[in-house]
Design a protein that fits this description.
alpha/beta; seven-stranded mixed sheet; 7 strands
């Protein structure tokens, strides 16, 4: 199976969720950050994912999610996957709690839009920054690392199927989804290695598979 639209939201090797006190639920009153609520992967492990094998050789659109701290590394990953960078899309979020970051509180995430081949877009979007609403769970709390509904609607408007959502938090009609947190996600032969890498990333130091 090959795809003409691939979304990848990899678990970048962030050290912690930041000192966010309040509605986000991360950090604590001392200002200390908490570990990420999911296993992370190194940049090398992310670059080794078989995205090139999953992309349609005739043409594919790729949406690679990243944060400011790994924006540079994301370009290295694109090159390793054999995609050509096109544009950077920005999700501008309303600050919640104290906000992560140093001098400037971080309230943006980035999506590198890249191409392989000459697949034409279905439509043209006016602008490259978006104020999509945050996803919330059934308790009304923000879902950490979950992608907003508005993003999927945009990707569906721009990029033809078949479509694949890598490291998905939930399944979506019209998409194949792959991820430990997405119930009913598919198994693909080309992702056996990726599953092994993701599993190894969850192991504690010194622990064997």
């Amino acid at each position: 199976m090959s795809y003409r639209c691939i979304v990848v939201d990899p678990p970048w090797p962030q050290r912690g969720a930041g000192a966010l006190v309040g509605r986000e639920g991360f950090g604590d009153a001392t200002g200390n950050s908490k570990p990420m609520p999911y296993p992370t992967m190194t940049t090398a492990q992310i670059a080794a994912l078989p995205i090139a094998q999953l992309a349609d050789p005739a043409g594919c659109h790729l949406y690679l999610w990243t944060t400011s701290g790994f924006l540079g590394a994301a370009f290295t990953v694109l090159e390793a996957w054999g995609f050509s960078y096109s544009q950077t899309l920005v999700w501008a979020k309303k600050l919640m709690g104290g906000g992560m970051g140093g001098t400037f509180g971080i309230n943006t995430e980035f999506i590198l839009y890249a191409r392989r081949g000459n697949l034409q877009a279905l439509t043209r979007i006016k602008g490259t920054w978006f104020t999509w609403k945050r996803p919330y769970d059934h308790r009304g709390k923000p879902m950490h690392s979950a992608k907003p509904e508005g993003f999927y609607l945009m990707a569906e408007a721009v990029s033809p199927g078949p479509r694949l959502d890598m490291f998905a938090r939930r399944t979506r009609m019209g998409w194949d989804c792959w991820g430990d947190q997405a119930p009913g996600s598919i198994e693909l032969p080309t992702l056996v290695t990726a599953k092994r890498v993701a599993h190894q990333a969850r192991l504690a130091p010194g622990e064997t598979p």
